[in-house]
Design goal:
The complex is a heterotrimer of chains A (about 280), B (about 450) and C (about 300).
Chain A (H helix, E strand, L loop, with lengths): L7 H28 L21 H9 L2 H32 L5 H11 L4 H14 L7 H9 L2 H12 L3 H9 L4 H12 L1 H17 L2 H6 L8 H6 L9 H22 L7 H7 L1
Helix pairs in contact in A: 1-13, 2-13, 3-6, 3-7, 3-10, 4-7, 7-10, 10-13
Chain B lengths: L1 H24 L1 H8 L13 E7 L7 H12 L3 E7 L5 H10 L7 E4 L2 H9 L7 H6 L10 H4 L1 E2 L2 E2 L2 E13 H6 L11 H11 L9 E4 L5 H4 L19 H12 L6 H6 L4 H6 L3 E7 L2 H10 L8 E5 L10 E11 L6 H12 L1 H9 L9 H8 L8 H5 L5 E4 L7 H16 L5 H16 L2
Parallel strand pairs in B: 1-2, 1-3, 7-8, 10-11
Antiparallel strand pairs in B: 3-10, 4-5, 6-8, 6-9, 6-10
Helix pairs in contact in B: 1-2, 3-16, 5-19, 16-17, 19-20
Chain C lengths: L4 H6 L2 H37 L2 E2 L9 E2 L3 H8 L1 H31 L7 H13 L2 H11 L6 H8 L15 H25 L4 H9 L4 H12 L1 H16 L3 H6 L11 H10 L4 H30 L1
Antiparallel strand pairs in C: 1-2
Helix pairs in contact in C: 2-14, 3-14, 4-8, 4-11, 5-8, 8-11, 11-14, 13-14
The chains are: A mainly alpha (about 280), B alpha/beta (about 450), C mainly alpha (about 300).
Chain lengths: ~280, ~450, ~300
């Protein structure tokens, strides 16, 4: 790993990596290609990778035909709030599950995990009734935020990473006189940057791409989100596929930027460097 | 310790359910009973907002036009739209209505299974009395209203009835030097004609006709004779149609089902790209093709329409209809106003507004059809104009309390037959075994 | 030393325990209250609904029918088919996804050229809109005109599979697609997990003369225990709950050959509006995952002890 010598194994490695990159990027190439086509040509065979008459107008039309800017704003707002709440509450709760002893810990934890398995389709209707009749949150962004921000998944994920932080670190901090809140803030949070980055990416993507939630809860056009907006190009009997893919390319960019910015936290040694200090 | 936990969890669940079923029981049921008592008539002059659950608000021109036209005559009534999107409309609407007090007064009913489930759940207002009181002549809708009666009661009135026709590409006919189809074509003649038109290869491949992936495009030729329905429970009458279409598929006359299903092929793309000479499709395609030709988006520039192919011995002009209805919710607080608006949309005036947007209204008489054929871009030949005149329309899906499940079973078998996963006989016996129990046979 | 820490030592053991419990609950509370109100309560309602008959009506209330819905499960051919389809799908998808994700994570954790590019690219299938990627996947694997089959035919394969439209291959197509789509997601989990392995362990092993393979099995795998637990449970749950991939790739077909449980649940709930029965089917998923989780959880605890 240290010397940059020529090794045949490296050649094979890069060959495989480039292959993987190709396999992953083909749909992206197709999306861009489709986004420059007329609706009728999008699914035409044989596949035309480079459109004969690229239709850049699609990228202008998407902003006019639906209030895409408004949708992006709404989605950004929801996504940022959800991600923030999710990170905060999940890492907080996960600390207790990973590092503290208390009554009912295992039962509570397993019930957290298993509820992830219940498909949303099964409790969507009772949940909607409760949200509207008890909390009067129908057609509000707050409803989506409440549903997304307190997921069991975040707690599960953060707990698993906190388990890897050596208990000795917490013990040492307790002997130094830190209380649990301080240990969480000063030791666990800084050590769990890769995990926080992971949870940020996952929450961001999930909220950004959420479809069924906004569909059920947001019925006023001004309040809708991107994924609902994309479906607005699909009407009952015909769909504007060229525009759908143009809009898909546009809304993909923020997600990729978030990933690109956060992946740099996946660097070996962060979590363990604390041990030496 | 664990036992007490289980008990407390059970108690909690019982508590939640009582709260929850309470709200299903009390509020909405009471208002449903209160609504028909007729107290609403005193407050006609009050300002009223009617909420209309529908889809494709910005894609369909007539919604706003209808609201504006009604508002002109009834300045106290305002229409507010609740656009639930077309792709998951029934899921979204059903969830909205499930809570009881949904605030929705009027609903567009997208299809028969949705209508069946909402009537079964008691969510729609019974309009039978209103129809006879306000002397609405349901024969104006052809034989459609009879087909949507539930135990003799009507819960919706249609405002659109998209009849099925054959669209054909005049350029491709001219190129192949084949005479245009006529308004009286049996299914066998349709097959023979398609065989004459198919040709070419590679990028210039032209299909004689195109059956979209829906089961309706193949199965429903079988119900035009009036002797069979999709609720028969015995589907052997579909066999000749499947055999013909599969043979066409095998001979390269129509596009292969497996290909068109997996590649998300759109009928619009195939027709507009000059890939198919004929297309059996509902009336909704008319406005799309007219718009696309006008905007220069379509390679096919000249098209015509003829009446739907029918089995031998059945009168020409017998076709399928896909209806869209309007209904009033059982929980509405503005029953009179909602019914009056429904009467407006489904009446002559509203129907004319719909026809002007190249959509097929539910009342199809010379006045409304005249609006469509007079539109700029409508084919100029007489046959295309006559193609819109029907003698009998059968609903695409027949009404039954199990409509949704039957529809699903027929779709599954259709998919299996058309992708050649099972033989026609096996597919049909699959339909029989799956549908019969649903019909209680 | 903070003031709070001093009195704790003086109070009795029992009081201290209560205090410890309270501290722990205070950590959990912000998430748990939100979770309980917005997710747990509706789930408990769904559990209740599974003993009832209800068509989602706003005017008719649910009717208690005891175990009726559960009894119906055993007689329902469509449920049984969907159940086994789900099991087959899960059994095939989980190991491959986990293995490939781990492999990819290890490679992308090395100091290689353009690492952030390759990481982003391999996460791409997960973030890209499903409508788009399903469309291109289906186009590539289209039975007659698709590039994949054309390549196969030029290689001398006489009857290439019909993939998504073929009875025998539809499930395989589905499995391949979902592995491709989701590997990047679990790669990220593993990537984060790899960061918590102490590099000194590898250095010590190198001094002892361990080769790469030995290091992988003796250090990487055991050290990733907690991450593997997470990935395993999440892949399993995701497979059990698969819905939109099936919808986009095969739509449950040909016929009902690839109908999975959630696909069926959606149909029962929102086409047939039989919400009680839909809840009952969901409970089957819940129990399945409960069993898997308990087994894994026990293993995790014995491993860490």
């Amino acid at each position: 790993m240290t010397a940059a010598k020529f090794r045949p194994s490296k050649v094979i490695l890069y060959f495989v990596l480039v292959l993987i990159a190709l396999v992953c990027l083909i749909p992206f190439a197709w999306m861009i290609s489709a986004s420059l086509k007329l609706n009728k040509d999008v699914f035409a065979f044989p596949i035309q990778w480079i459109p004969q008459n690229p239709r850049f107008q699609n990228y202008g039309d998407i902003w006019e035909q639906i209030p895409l800017g408004k949708f992006i704003f709404n989605t950004t707002k929801i996504t940022v709030i959800v991600t923030f709440l999710q990170l905060l509450t999940s890492s907080f709760a996960a600390y207790a599950f990973a590092k503290l002893r208390f009554k009912g810990k295992n039962v509570l934890f397993i019930s957290y995990v298993c509820t992830i398995a219940v498909p949303w389709q099964a409790y969507m209707v009772p949940q909607f009734i409760m949200m509207r009749n008890t909390f009067h949150l129908n057609d509000t962004h707050l409803a989506i935020i409440c549903l997304q921000a307190f997921s069991a998944f975040g707690v599960f994920l953060m707990r698993q990473f906190y388990m890897d932080v050596p208990d000795e670190l917490c013990e040492a901090a307790r002997i130094d006189g830190m209380n649990e809140y301080q240990i969480w803030a000063k030791i666990m949070l800084p050590l769990s940057k890769p995990a926080l980055a992971t949870l940020t990416i996952f929450t961001f993507v999930a909220t950004w791409n959420d479809f069924l939630g906004p569909l059920i809860y947001l019925t006023t056009t001004e309040k809708k989100t991107i994924q609902i907006g994309l479906r607005m190009f699909i009407s009952q009997y015909s769909s504007e596929y060229g525009l759908i893919f143009a809009a898909s390319v546009v809304v993909l960019i923020p997600v990729l930027i978030v990933f690109l910015l956060l992946q740099k936290y996946f660097v070996q040694g962060i979590a363990t460097s604390g041990l030496k200090g | 310790m664990t036992k007490s936990r289980i008990v407390s969890a059970l108690l909690a669940s019982a508590l939640c359910l009582s709260v929850f079923s309470g709200c299903g029981n009390g509020g909405p049921a009471a208002s449903a009973n209160a609504a028909p008592s007729g107290t609403a008539s005193q407050k006609t002059a009050e300002k009223v907002t009617l909420t209309w659950a529908m889809w494709d608000k910005d894609k369909v021109e007539y919604y706003q036009q209808l609201a504006d036209a009604y508002n002109k005559e009834h300045s106290n009534v305002e229409i507010s739209f609740k656009d639930l999107g077309s792709s998951d409309y029934q899921t979204a609407l059903g969830t909205q209505l499930a809570g009881g007090d949904s605030g929705i007064d009027i609903v567009s009913v997208k299809d028969i299974p949705g209508y069946a489930s909402m009537t079964k759940a008691g969510e729609l207002l019974d309009l039978t009395q209103y129809i006879s009181d306000s002397k609405i002549d349901t024969s104006k809708y052809g034989n459609v209203v009879d087909q949507i009666k539930v135990d003799g009661k009507v819960y919706e009135l249609p405002y659109r009835n998209d009849i099925w026709v054959v669209y054909y590409n005049k350029d491709l006919f001219d190129k192949a030097k084949v005479a245009y189809p006529t308004n009286d074509m049996t299914f066998d003649q349709y097959d023979a004609l398609a065989r004459k038109l198919a040709g070419g290869s590679g990028n210039d491949k032209v299909y004689g006709n195109y059956y979209h992936k829906w089961r309706s495009t193949v199965q429903l030729f079988g119900i035009l004779d009036g002797k069979h329905t999709v609720l028969d429970g015995d589907y052997s009458f579909l066999k000749p149609y499947y055999n013909t279409v599969l043979k066409e598929q095998q001979d390269g006359i129509c596009m292969d089902y497996a290909t068109l299903k997996t590649s998300n092929t759109t009928y619009q793309g195939v027709f507009e790209n000059n890939q198919a000479a004929m297309l059996n499709m509902g009336g909704w395609f008319l406005s799309t093709i007219m718009q696309d030709i006008k905007a220069g988006k379509s390679k096919c520039t000249k098209f015509g329409m003829v009446k739907y192919p029918h089995p031998a011995g059945v009168e020409a002009g017998t076709t399928l209809g896909t209806i869209t209805g309007l209904a009033v919710t059982a929980t509405t607080k503005h029953k009179d106003e909602a019914c009056d608006f429904l009467k407006f949309v489904t009446g002559e005036e509203g129907q004319k507004i719909i026809a002007k947007t190249a959509s097929f209204p539910a009342i199809q008489d010379s006045a409304t059809l005249g609006e469509i054929t007079a539109l700029d871009g409508f084919p100029t030949d007489q046959n295309s104009k006559d193609a819109l005149k029907t003698v009998k329309t059968y609903l695409e899906m027949a009404l039954n309390s199990q409509s949704a499940a039957i529809d699903k079973a027929l779709n599954d078998a259709h998919d299996a037959i058309m992708s050649k996963s099972v033989s026609v006989d096996d597919g049909i016996s699959q339909m029989n075994t799956n549908v019969k129990p649903l019909l209680g046979k | 030393m903070t003031a709070a820490a001093v009195p704790v030592k003086k109070v009795s053991l029992k009081k201290r325990k209560i205090l410890d419990n309270l501290t722990a609950y205070s950590f959990i509370a912000p998430n748990f209250i939100g979770f309980a109100v917005f997710t747990l309560v509706p789930i408990v309602m769904a559990v209740g609904l599974s003993f009832m008959e209800w068509n989602g009506s706003g005017v008719q209330s649910p009717k208690y029918i005891g175990l009726g819905n559960y009894a119906h499960l055993f007689r329902d051919g469509q449920f049984i088919e969907a159940f086994f389809n789900t099991i087959i799908y899960t059994a095939a998808t989980v190991p491959f996804t986990m293995f490939l994700a781990l492999l990819l994570a290890i490679v992308l954790n090395q100091k290689i050229f353009a690492r952030s590019f390759f990481r982003t690219v391999s996460f791409f299938p997960y973030v890209a809109s499903l409508v788009a990627v399903a469309a291109v996947w289906n186009a590539l694997f289209s039975p007659t005109a698709g590039p994949v089959n054309q390549i196969l035919m030029s290689l001398g394969v006489k009857n290439p599979p019909g993939w998504a439209a073929d009875v025998h291959w539809a499930m395989v197509t589905l499995i391949l697609f979902s592995i491709w789509k989701n590997v990047g997601y679990y790669m990220v989990m593993y990537l984060a997990g790899l960061q918590s392995i102490n590099p000194e362990l590898y250095e010590a092993a190198s001094l002892d003369g361990a080769n790469t393979v030995q290091k992988f099995f003796q250090i990487t795998i055991p050290q990733l225990g907690h991450t593997t637990f997470l990935v395993m449970i999440m892949v399993t749950i995701q497979c059990f709950k698969v819905y939109d991939i099936v919808l986009m790739i095969t739509n449950g077909g040909p016929g009902t050959k690839t109908q999975v449980l959630v696909f069926y649940i959606y149909n029962v709930a929102f086409n047939n509006w039989d919400l009680g029965y839909a809840s009952a089917i969901s409970m089957v998923l819940f129990v399945l995952v409960l069993v898997v989780t308990l087994v894994m959880f026990r293993r995790e605890r014995t491993m860490s002890n």
